[in-house]
UniProtKB/TrEMBL annotation, chain A:
Residue spans of biased composition, Low complexity class: 13-22
Domain Response regulatory as annotated: residue spans: 33-150
Domain HTH luxR-type, residue spans: 178-243
Organism for this UniProt entry: Cryobacterium glaciale
Protein name: Response regulator transcription factor
Length: 245, 472
């Protein structure tokens, strides 16, 4: 499920166009190019300092409008995107994805949020984010998640996995009969989600279920696709009703 | 100068007495005497009553309740005179004492009732007196007395209905409205009677009559409308406070939670700063999303909340970070103090919570770092796992904890009709404690201790050091 890398093309030119990234990131090698979008400068600088060395921060943006422009200009590989953002039409992170994704075809979005509210998470995932992690994650965890997103995988936090299990009625015993079915999880996907909700890493899920790590990733990506495309009413109703993940 | 809340008529005499230091009976006597001097006393009284603010109610910043159940707002109190013996004694009380003592409040609300009776009584008395006087041959101006009686009765009835409305005692508001209108019509008719029975009516009589009716109805309804308006203002203030709170919540969510997350991130999971930040974050979240302020005092009613609370408590004492994920239908916690509080629902026994707490405590004590707590409540039952990434569960390292695990976790779950297992965590690192409780063990109220054989599974791979192998 790996999406072809857009590495190398015009890398140096884009790095030069970035507002002020190269100075803060001395080891600006041709690593994974990320853009940090968050309206709190303290969080941006904190995250920037924490990120692994092989991640090159192309720039930062604080508002929806600035983020859209930056994504289109800089064409980063991964955008670390806050769910709540000022500006634009008030759509926050989801709006950035909707506006910028078509004009930055190789850019992937990783939602980063302090919010536990399911409707926030679901809105940004359904807009096209490839994953979701909480802001309490360490720099190494964020870096790892960014790398996985760049490799085409989906990144699920335990909470998001728990939400998925709930929203698709997997706990109540609903299982999809065919792989085409969007509104229910297959038995294997349910198992994978269950283990991720328990805090297992993909590798640990793979070894517990005696399947290859790549298979786990396939399952997770399939779940993400269902999350994005399913019209299951729980996905919206549940979030509104319970407010919390 | 204010009029006290507890009053005989309008509280004017009491307020005046309190203000000047003159004894209350003297003030009252003077008032009565002045009233007979061409009605001057009564006029002065009425004027003072209108101009002097009522004490207490305005100084009270918090609306105790939007409806007038509370003592300060009981309707008839400020306006009329209950001639009750006990009321005389309380009348001398200061506002503050009246406001604070609840027996007084009861007395005050009890005073609300007699007003209408007194007015009705006056009406009846006047009617009787007039009858007797006319029998005795006195020249009774019936043209004045009859309307007066009607007006008194109408006013009394109207006020009674208003009191009912404010206290929320009446359920059928439409019927109440009809009765109020009826009472008001009575007042209007009474006032009109003054003029209808008069001699040679002309245009002026009609105008004055119309004005009088309007005035009369206004006088009767004014106090009620005033109360209604103040209730509305109170309600508006409450709503404004609610909006303000939502604003603050939004702001806190955006700024403070971010900062707390950052602190945790920068400080590392094992530091005191991170722990403090995490505790603060949790408190804030609870406040923001559930609306409870410092709600940790009341017992948790559902299992997920109970687990989160336990996680919070343990995090305060240990360098550990629990990620609690709850999936499935909400399951309550049956408290041992009040068993079968709601027999219809399926509640998890408290022993499950206790066992989970022990497992989490164990993880915090011996592993620390990030610990996952996963709760799944499905049709089959409750499944709860506590997974840590610590050094693994070795009894030789922690001999004193042997009993804790065997009794507090395994034994407890067994007695509750469930099972518990301790095995190495994912990838062979750390420990995973799995608690399962079949649905049958807690849905049936009578099945407290089902004799189920404990399925204490042990992982097949090298875990000879695990707890099942040791006997105390």
């Amino acid at each position: 499920m790996t999406i072809p890398e857009a590495n190398g093309q015009g890398d140096s030119a884009r790095a030069a166009a970035a507002p002020a990234p190269a100075t803060a990131q001395p080891e600006a090698s041709a690593g994974l190019r990320v853009l940090i979008v968050d309206d709190h400068s303290i969080f941006r600088s904190g995250l920037r300092a924490e990120l692994d060395a092989d991640l090159t921060v192309l720039g930062e943006a604080a508002t929806v409008d600035a983020a859209i422009i930056s994504v289109i200009d800089l064409q980063p590989r991964v955008v670390l995107l806050d769910v709540h953002l000022p500006g634009g039409r008030g759509g926050g992170g989801a709006e950035v994805i909707r506006e910028a994704a078509s004009r930055a075809p190789h850019t992937l979005f990783l939602a980063l949020s302090v919010s536990d509210a399911a409707d926030d998470v679901v809105s940004v995932i359904r807009a096209g984010a490839r994953g979701y992690i909480t802001k309490s994650a360490s720099g190494a965890e964020v870096s790892d998640a960014a790398r996985r997103v760049a490799d085409g995988d989906a990144v699920f936090s335990p909470r998001l996995a728990g939400f998925v299990l709930d929203a698709f009625g997997a706990v109540a015993g609903e299982t999809a009969e065919t792989t085409e079915e969007l509104d229910r999880l297959s038995a294997r996907e349910t198992e994978v989600m269950r283990l991720i909700a328990r805090g297992y890493s993909y590798k640990e899920v793979a070894s517990t279920l005696f399947i290859a790590a790549k298979t786990v990733e396939t399952h997770v990506s399939a779940v993400l696709r269902k999350l994005q495309l399913s019209s299951r009413h729980e996905l919206t109703a549940w979030a509104l009703e319970r407010k919390l993940l | 100068m204010t009029r006290p809340r507890l009053r005989l008529v309008g509280g004017v005499c009491a307020g005046f007495a309190e203000h000047t230091g003159v004894s209350l009976p003297t003030v009252r006597l003077v008032t009565v005497v002045l009233s007979f001097c061409g009605g001057f006393g009564a006029l002065l009284y009425a004027w003072l009553w209108a101009t002097i603010p009522s004490g207490g109610a305005m100084a009270d910043p918090l609306p105790k309740s939007s409806l007038g159940r509370s003592r300060g707002f009981s309707f008839a109190g400020p306006h009329e005179a209950p001639v009750v013996a006990t009321a005389l004694s309380v009348d001398d009380d200061t506002t503050s004492r009246a406001a604070t003592s609840s027996p007084r409040a009861d007395a005050d609300s009890a005073r609300a009732a007699p007003v209408t009776e007194i007015l009705l009584g006056l009406a009846v008395l006047a009617a009787g007196g007039a009858l007797v006087a006319s029998r005795l041959g006195a020249d009774i101006p019936l043209a004045v007395v009859v309307p007066a009686i009607v007006v008194l009765a109408g006013t009394a009835l109207a006020w009674r209905q208003f009191a009912d409305i404010r206290s929320g005692a009446a359920q059928q508001s439409s019927a109440l409205l009809v009765r109020i209108l009826g009472a008001l019509v009575l007042v209007a008719v009474g006032i009109l009677l003054f003029f209808v029975t008069g001699t040679n009516p002309n245009a002026w009589t009609v105008i004055v009559a119309a004005a009088s009716v309007l005035l009369g109805v206004a006088v009767v309804t004014a106090p009620w409308l005033l109360r209604l308006w103040s209730d509305l203002a109170d309600e508006r203030a409450a709503r404004a406070r609610e909006a303000e709170r939502a604003d603050i919540a939004a702001h806190l969510h955006d700024s403070v939670l971010q900062t707390l997350a950052l602190i945790q991130q920068k400080a590392g999971p094992h530091s005191d700063a991170a722990r403090l930040a995490r505790a603060q974050e949790r408190e804030l979240r609870e406040w923001l999303f559930t609306g409870t302020r410092g709600g940790s005092t009341e017992p948790a009613t559902d299992l997920a909340t109970a687990l989160r609370r336990i996680a919070g408590e343990i995090e305060e004492d240990f360098a550990v970070h629990f990620e609690v994920v709850a999936v499935g239908a909400e399951v309550g916690v049956r408290s041992t103090a009040s068993p079968e509080s709601n027999p219809g629902s399926a509640d998890a026994p408290e022993s499950l919570v206790a066992a989970a707490r022990e497992a989490m405590l164990n993880a915090a004590r011996h592993a620390g770092g990030a610990v996952s707590v996963y709760l799944e409540t499905g049709a089959r039952g409750i499944e709860l796992s506590v997974t840590d990434r610590g050094p693994g569960f070795r009894l030789d390292q922690i001999p004193e904890d042997r009993l804790g695990v065997r009794e507090s976790i395994l034994g407890r779950m067994h007695r509750a009709g469930g099972s518990a297992s301790v095995r190495p965590g994912p990838g062979g690192a750390g420990t995973e404690i799995l608690l399962t409780l079949p649905a049958a063990a807690y849905t049936d109220p009578g099945a407290g201790a089902v004799p189920v054989t404990p399925v204490t599974t042990t992982h097949p791979v090298p875990d000879t050091h695990h707890t099942e192998t040791s006997v105390r």
